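Input.
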Amino acid sequence: MIDGGRRATRTAAALYVFLGISFGASVPFVLAHLARHGELPMSPFGWRYMAGPVEQLGPGAVTSLGWALIGVSALDVLAGRWLWQGRRRGLALGLATTIPALALGAAFALPLLLIGVPIRTALALAGSRTLR
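Output.
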């Protein structure tokens, strides 16, 4: 049976990977739509994807910060992999991406990031004593 610290680390790792893949794989499609049509795509529910405060800065800023989100997402996947393997460097990388991920989540009004990043960080810290 996995102890509580190890379980927390594994759950954090899964969240790092889930959020990283979710945004790393979806944002390029949003940016491609923006490049083709000059506007962010609409969701089936009537709101624009990634239409947070950054949208007021124009398409160039949305594109630049969108690519930054893709980069942070890739680093999050790597951090999650290392955390899953029990490596302390996964915690270090995960902590390093926390502020950029939260800032980009706020800039694009992405509630999944704004909720998920603090949870994964708390879980990773809770399980940090199990890392080597």
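DSSP finds four helices and no strands in the chain.
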